[in-house]
Write a structure and sequence with these properties.
The protein is an all-alpha fold. Helices cover about 70% and strands about 0% of the residues. Helix 3 crosses helix 9, helix 3 crosses helix 13 and helix 4 crosses helix 11. It starts with a helix and ends in a 5-residue tail after the last helix.
């Protein structure tokens, strides 16, 4: 069956009147709705934290939970859309580091702080556009491209700032890392994340743009024949990712009141873990912003509980890796089963003599 025929005959992926394509209905009740599983994990994480430390449920501790995951969660939002299209961006943390470097370098050279921030954001946009061009125009695999730019962006940052660090940023801006939003116990970064999550959720789940993102992940060729500008959509998703990660780098710089080239080193693992734990399919075509928000809360609560009881950072990395594997395996079990059945059916077909 051709892609066009499938679009016409399969109501799960049939084009809507505006030319977009609907996301499919998944089997097994979407594995009892992965968001429900995440909610249960969140409650279990809070209960565990309250048992291991009497300080876990304090108001000030919730501030630190949000503070520790804010920039990571912000970077997870654009990556969610990229993964839904069936691609990946592993350069997110390196872009954060490059942005932090540029803010400090430009500020040290006498630029006004807002001009330095604008310069870092422009660099982030250009870096994201570079990823987009390499993936969409040259047709290179996104995993290879973004591993390359992961090293490229970090290398540029190291050349620019070397082992130096820049401090002395305006007190009003560095307060974002030590003070909550007035009249709340929310860190500034997590407040920004929640506001952005609402915007991303509306765009992804209630607009033609979101339907196009799902369509590309479901079946790229069919989406193209249905009128979706596949390469253009992917390009701008990568550009947006670069811009948002640069913004996360600005927040990171102000939180630590320091600019260094190695800012955020290794955070790409945490960002990918949140996206996949949130139920976004590594195969593309499935995911939700609600799931990503819940996964952020789960990761934040677990990390804070482990910190309170002084769990070794290496052990925490192992736990993150296990969660990453489980988040790939469990939500995608129906897909693995379908693929296994198709492979078994092909084996049983008689071979031509």
């Amino acid at each position: 069956m051709s892609p066009v025929d499938q679009l016409e005959q399969d109501p799960a992926v049939a084009p809507t009147p505006d030319g977009a394509v609907r996301a499919p209905r998944r089997g097994w009740g979407a594995l009892m709705r992965w968001e429900t599983v995440l909610l249960a994990l969140l409650l279990a994480s809070i209960f565990y934290g309250s048992q291991v430390s009497e300080h876990f449920l304090s108001k000030s501790n919730f501030f630190f939970i949000g503070l520790n995951v804010g920039e990571i969660a912000i970077m997870a939002l654009p990556l969610t859309l990229i993964v839904i299209t069936g691609e990946i961006d592993l350069s997110v943390a390196s872009m954060l580091g490059l942005s932090s470097t540029l803010v400090g370098l430009l500020f040290r050279e006498g630029w006004p702080i807002w001009a330095a921030v604008a310069g870092a954001l422009v660099a982030g946009l250009l870096g994201g556009m570079l990823n987009g061009v390499l993936v969409t125009r040259l047709g290179l695999p996104s995993i290879a491209v973004t591993i390359g730019t992961l090293t490229l962006f970090r290398g540029i940052a190291e050349i620019l700032l070397k082992s130096d660090s820049v401090t002395g940023f305006p007190i009003g801006l560095t307060n974002v890392g030590i003070l909550p939003v007035p009249h709340t116990q929310l860190a500034y970064s997590v407040t920004i994340f929640l506001a952005m999550a609402v915007v991303y959720g509306v765009v992804l789940h209630a607009t033609p743009i979101g339907r196009k993102v799902f369509a590309i992940g479901l079946q790229e060729e069919a989406a193209f024949f249905a009128g979706v500008r596949v390469q253009r959509v992917k390009f701008w998703l990568y550009a947006l990712s670069g811009l948002v990660c640069a913004f996360a780098g600005v927040l990171w710089t102000f939180r630590f009141a320091t600019s260094r080239y190695d800012a955020g080193t290794g955070l790409e693992l945490n960002v990918v873990a949140i996206v996949l734990l949130g139920g976004v399919s590594i195969f593309g075509g499935r995911g939700s912003i609600v799931g990503v928000v819940l996964a952020t809360a789960v990761m934040g609560c677990l990390q804070e509980a482990f910190t309170l009881i002084n769990v070794d950072p290496q052990v925490q990395n192992i736990i993150t890796g296990v969660l990453l594997l489980l988040s790939v395996l469990v939500p995608n079990l129906p897909e693995f089963v379908r693929r296994g059945r198709r492979a078994l059916a092909r084996r049983r077909q008689p071979r031509p003599t």
